[in-house]
Every structure is written in C-alpha cells, then in structure tokens.
Design brief:
Largest sheet: 5 strands, parallel
CATH architecture: 3-Layer(aba) Sandwich
Radius of gyration: 16 Å
CATH class: Alpha Beta
CATH superfamily: HUPs
Shape: globular
Helix content: 40-55%
Number of domains: 1
CATH topology: Rossmann fold
Number of helices: 9
Strand content: 5-15%
Distance between the termini: 29 Å
Number of strands: 5
Structural class: alpha/beta
Length: about 190
C-alpha cells in the first residue's frame, strides 16, 4: 500500500490559492497549534475552532483553552464543554489502546462538528492541527477530512503538520511561550491505557 504524502498535497493546495481564503482551523491545544500557525498564517484568514469534548475534566478543558491567549490574537471559537458527546462515541471502546478505534471515533466527531460549524459560518476551507502529533495517524485524519468534504460543501486542506520538523517546532515554540503542555491526549481512557 502506498502512503500518501499529505504534506506535499497541502503544498500543492497552497500554491493554487487565490487571495486569502477563510480557514476554520480545528485546534486541539495551543502547543500543537503553535507549530501549525507559522505554516498557514500567510495563506489564510484563520479562525481557530476549539471543539474537544474528549478532554477530561472541564477544568482541564478550560486550562487548555486559556493557553491560546499566550499564542495568538487570532479569533477563536471555544465550544461549550460537553464531555457526553465524546462518551457517546467512545461507548464500548473504553479499553481500546491509544491510537485505536476509540481515537478514530473521537477524531471523526471533532472533524464533523468542525465541518458543520465551517459550513454554517461560510468558511472556504477547513483543516485540523491533529496531524502534528506523532501519536495521531495523519492518514486517518486526512481520509476522514476527505470523506467529510464529499458530504459538506467545503474544501478540506490536507496536511501532515509533523513533517519538516513541525512537531519539534511546536515543542520549541511552546517552551519559548511557556505554554502548558498536557501529559495525556485528553480523555480519561488515554490516562489509563
């Protein structure tokens, strides 16, 4: 099976842009976002979308949300905390390993809600910071984004933000800005498994 080079696909998409389209960027946390914004900021009018019902507890959710103010003054939509939305998709998958079926269902949920918001608010493109993590499957994330772009009338920006030292850059920027770097993905099951 040939792996798709999503980093190259993104570069091709960026080279074909006209003007500065509106991008809704689903963000998981400020540290990951810190490595993505330098790649995209010159190409798009960016709004951040913080929708992560997987994060456990509400205090952790809010702590992560607060960190964006240290990183950027871009507009950010912080969704209301509703952990039950995640628990519904994680039902019977609690014992799955990190990166398994539970994570895939979580990613699908977060991307679909992002697409819904992007369409309702007339964005041109959508993407996510999730692929910057070495613990996340960029192929799955991009396949999911591609599938959703077939359902919703919005363009998906392919990406594998960990490429070209993206993850390392995010670690370095996070240290410089003293951003809170969480020690678990977000859900209570990622703390256990």
């Amino acid at each position: 099976m040939n792996k798709i080079n999503y980093n190259l696909m993104m570069k091709e998409q960026l080279s074909n842009l006209t003007g500065k389209p509106k991008l809704l960027l689903h963000v998981c946390c400020a540290p990951c976002t810190s490595g993505v914004l330098p790649v995209l900021k010159n190409f798009f009018d960016i709004t951040l979308f913080y929708y992560n019902p997987n994060i456990y507890t509400k205090d952790e959710y809010l702590l992560r949300a607060e960190q964006f103010a240290k990183l950027t003054n871009l507009p950010i939509i912080i969704s209301e905390y509703n952990h039950d939305e995640f628990l519904n998709v994680a039902k019977n998958l609690e014992k799955e390993v990190e990166g398994g079926k539970r994570c895939n269902e979580c990613i699908k949920l977060r991307l679909e809600k992002s697409f819904e918001y992007a369409v309702a608010n007339k964005f041109d493109y959508i993407s996510s910071t999730l692929s910057i993590s070495p613990h996340k499957d960029a192929n799955f994330i991009n396949e999911c984004g591609n599938n959703l772009s077939q359902t919703y009338p919005i363009k998906y920006l392919y990406a594998d933000f960990k490429k070209e030292n993206g993850y390392l850059n995010s670690v370095n920027i996070s240290k410089e800005l003293n951003l809170y770097r969480q020690i678990f993905c977000g859900c209570e099951f990622s703390k256990i498994n």
